[in-house]
Amino acid sequence: MRAAKLAVTSSAFGANGEIPSQYTCEGANTSPPLAWSGAPAGTKQYALIVDDPDAPDPAHPQRTWVHWVVPALAADVTSLAAGATPQAGNNDFGKAEWGGPCPPIGRHRYFFKVYALDAQIAATPGETKADLLKAIDGHVLAEGELVGTYQKTK
């Protein structure tokens, strides 16, 4: 069964638009505002992953860099304010928090992926993107993504 589609938006940038520098390593490095809608009945929880498939160089990507892993958002949470600090798993910076865009070279794409789940999945300290994807496998009712871009100016 194919998952339904969630609409994921940000008041800070549009689809495929540039992420403002305040949400990156060149600014305050706080998470941007996000909102999602369209979850089907039976949604018990949401999960969020933000990653960059263009690392380290978009011309020659070698890996997907994980910026944020948020494993357990309550079903009544359909947005996160700028600078939100929900319980998080470990990103590829080795921290359990938002890690803003900081591409070493070129313009990178950042995928903000939201998953509506049919079960409550327990968050585990140190949880990674791979751990979360394994935990939610078979529980995704709907999913959606917003893509933003960023290129360092300094």
Concise synopsis of the structure shown:
The chain is mainly beta and 154 residues long. The protein is built from one helix and nine strands.
Distance between the termini: 46 Å
Helix/strand structural class? mainly beta
Helix content: under 10%
Total domain modules: 1
Please give the oligomerization state of what you see: single chain
Topology, number of strands: 9
Mean pLDDT: 96
- What's the CATH superfamily, by name? PEBP-like
Strand content: 35-45%
- Briefly, what CATH class? Alpha Beta
Poorly predicted parts: none
- Please state the overall shape, judged from the principal axes of the Cα atoms: globular
Note the run of SSEs as H and E.
EEEEEEEEHE
The number of helical runs is 1
Q: What Rg is obtained from the alpha carbons, in whole angstroms?
A: 15 Å
